[in-house]
Amino acid sequence: MSIRKYSQSDYNQLLEIYSTSKLDELKYENTNFELLPLDKDEIRLAQIYESDIYVYGTKYVVGFCAYSGSEIRALFVHPNYRGKGIGVSLLEFMLSNIIGTATLYVAASNHPAIKLYQKYGFKIISEFKTTYNRKAVLANKMEQLPVYG
Q1: How far apart are the C-alpha atoms of 88 and 8, rounded to whole Å?
Q2: Which one of 18, 24, 86, 103 counts the least CB within 10 Å of its CB?
Q3: What is the tens place of the pLDDT at every residue in 11-69?
Q4: Contact assessment for residue 81 and residue 88, using Cβ atoms and an 8 Å cutoff
Q5: Is residue 143 classed exposed, middle or buried when 0-12, 13-18 and 19+ CB atoms within 10 A define those classes?
Q6: Backbone angles phi, psi at 85, to 5 degrees
Q7: DSSP string for residues in 61-101
Q8: Contact, 51 vs 74, CB < 8 A?
Q9: How far apart are CA 5 and CA 67, in angstroms?
Q10: Alpha-carbon Rg for the chain in angstroms
Q11: Cβ density class 23-32: b for 16+ within 10 Å, e for less
């Protein structure tokens, strides 16, 4: 398996990964969320499509990531393939290609993701209210601080 540039033929697999993974990032909230499929979420889909999109896999895609400039916009791994280092590989790939201070947004309740990002030097710089599918969510903006050695 390898990381490669997204192609339009990956579209259905990207939608499947998103639909099986998106609500996992909100599972620590005190609210039950209903999935808004990526192909129905015009704003999110546009943000991803205006980004550099990469997929993890060969014939079958099991994860994907997207970044625009220095902003990480997506990092999803199909639940059946988690715990195998795919998310870390995609994150490291993006960080090796981002110039400047990497930024990302994450649900404030998603402690496993926050912990992972902190291992890579990210710090929470602000907290704000947003929504997902018309329900309130508290989110964090994180930035990767430079490492001096």
Answers
A1: 24
A2: 24
A3: 999 999 999 999 998 998 888 889 999 999 999 999 999 999 999 997 799 999 999 99
A4: no
A5: middle
A6: 85, 5
A7: EEEEEEEETTEEEEEEE-GGGTTSSHHHHHHHHHHHH--S-
A8: yes
A9: 12
A10: 15
A11: bebbeebeee
Q: How far apart are CA 136 and CA 128, in angstroms?
A: 10
Place of tokens 């039950």: 32
Please give the full DSSP string across 38-69, using - where no structure is assigned: GGG-HHHHHHHHTSEEEEEESSSEEEEEEEET
pLDDT tens for 66-114 read 999 999 999 999 999 999 999 999 999 999 999 999 999 999 999 999 9
Rounded Cα distance, 137 and 23, in Å: 12
At the fourth CATH level, the homologous superfamily of domain 3-144 is Gcn5-related N-acetyltransferase (GNAT) (3.40.630.30)
Among 74, 71, 98, 76, smallest CA distance to 86 is for: 76
Residue 100 φ then ψ, to 5°: 95, -165
Structure tokens at 14: 């990207």
Which of the 8 DSSP states describes residue 6?
Answer: -
